[in-house]
Structure prediction request, 109 residues.
Amino acid sequence: MSILDVWADKFIPATVVTITMAPNDDGEIVETTTDGATIWGVQYNRSEASRYFSKEWAADISDVFVTENATGIHKDTELKIDGVYWSCDEPVDILKMGEVWTIGLRRKA
Prediction:
């Protein structure tokens, strides 16, 4: 049983945002964002997350997403949570067992 099983009823979806190159109406190649994989987890504000996890986050991290699946998430990956875009920090295997990952989030403008 994972520690995340305790919070399973609080899980929310986070969509990995992928950037592709596609032509616009004028035929110019432009970056286009599309929704990729969905991961499930719990989102905390930074101070709330520090109560549960003894981890230091960079000063510009405002929120933390905790998940059991950080596959494909790297530094600067974008996530969309409830319509808000976030830039990720590098995921951290908080228990060193590959089952609970914390991801620092920076809100995108």
